[in-house]
Design a protein that fits this description.
homodimer, about 210 residues, alpha/beta, Rossmann fold, 2 domains, 6 strands
Chain lengths: ~210, ~210
């Protein structure tokens, strides 16, 4: 920017101001139009990094607002993660249930995976029927749905039957279209680049 | 699954086991090949939800592993968020600096935005030169780069010059290609669906 004259810089600054003033009017109108307050279903899917970490970021965000949070981890549970170690520090505010036994290629036992998924769903239903929980995280639920360990219609019926102001975040690759259809916000985390493919290990603090 | 005979179910379970056994061999080989341990640069970009929340999820994850974390928020800072309220509870482990004054269409002042971005970068450099910080979050830095409030080459030089084991997460829409080129892991959060467009307000706990 140092190659502009003071006059050019002043003109640039003024153009920026006018453009932003216009943008603010548009954005303010959209904000005014979006005035409903209601519990939403958020789905984080895709092959990229950020699905579970975003859900756990929302847990911190909710705790910052004094909300009570329920977490059920499907699939995960064989190994203690930084997420779990951290969130277990707040037993009054976060009810944390890691109810899986590992990825499907680790367990290699479809029948047992189904039993674990059903038990995890029972815990999820307890949260989904308790208005005290402002946020419910169902981590890796999409995987359990993808493998048909749980019936997607039962899951959706329970989700839609939850308390009106309760938010739910569902994570995992391959979210089924039926779930996407009933969700309010869906993000697909696309894997543009991953350190793992460059020979870098999954490390504490970033990956688990 | 109830319409299968016991024999069919047993066959299905066995096919699953064999497939997963094979998958495990492939994945284990990949894990064995990815053995480097080194600080990485993670970029969360795209128009979808989950960029900042994923970064803050990694903060919790890092805290779970006993790491010390530095956070600099570019652009954001005019309003207190759940993220900030929560992370300020850990002053010994998280150094939190919200150094913006709002989105560009709120401030409408290019010169002042540049001064704030430069001050925020000074704070970022303090973290990037201190190996005590295992994770540094540079929230919305991409916005400051997109508007050329900061020089991308200076930013990249400082990032590459950081302590070897330090991880950095950069968030914000429109990550510049120069930053993507030097990053180790890049996720694009794609907006498949957003509650806001269905008339639902940005709410505490999910959006801020």
């Amino acid at each position: 920017m140092t190659d502009l004259t003071p006059e050019q810089t002043a003109a640039l600054n003024e153009r920026h101001r006018v453009r932003m003033e216009r943008k603010k009017a548009i954005i303010d109108a959209k904000i005014a139009a979006a005035d409903k307050k209601i519990g939403i279903i958020i789905v984080n899917t895709g092959n990229g990094k950020g699905k579970s970490s975003s859900a756990f970021g929302m847990v911190g965000r909710a705790l910052g607002h004094g909300m009570k949070v329920g977490v059920v981890q499907f699939i995960k549970g064989a190994m203690s993660t930084g997420d779990e170690m951290f969130l277990r520090r707040f037993p009054d505010d976060v009810s944390f249930h890691a109810m899986g036994e590992g990825y499907t290629w680790e367990t290699q036992n479809r029948e047992r995976d189904i039993v674990k998924a059903e038990q995890a769903w029972e815990q999820a239903r307890r949260f989904l029927s308790d208005p005290a929980y402002g946020l419910v995280v169902l981590d890796e639920l999409n995987i359990a749905l993808k493998y048909h360990y749980l019936d997607v219609h039962t899951v959706i019926a329970d989700l839609l039957d939850r308390p009106e102001m309760q938010h739910v975040v569902v994570t995992g690759r391959g979210a089924p279209p039926e779930l996407i259809a009933v969700a309010d916000t869906v993000s697909e985390m696309t894997d543009v680049k991953h350190a793992f493919r460059a020979g870098i290990a999954a490390q504490a603090g970033t990956e688990w």
